Predict the 3D structure of the following.
Amino acid sequence: MERNTVATPIEDLKEHDLITNGHELGLLRVKSIEPPSGNSTLYKVEVVGLDATDLSKHITMTFYQGSTVQVQQGGAVTRLH
């Protein structure tokens, strides 16, 4: 099944978007987003696993400022670059 996606800056990622890291973790729901502070260029994104049984706890992913994500039209992120 083909999904319509649009390249979107990490700066536009929203809470509750669904993302995948493209590996074994399956779908992840964005719980919170911490933008860069000070001299940092990293966004800290806290996510919760939806598909994997061992991901009941939150995990934090980091993304460089300026990164893009493929956002499914309708608000769900389907793939990260």
Observations:
- The chain has a mean pLDDT of 74.
- The domain at 5-80 is CATH 2.30.30.30 (SH3 type barrels.).
- The chain has one domain: 5-80.
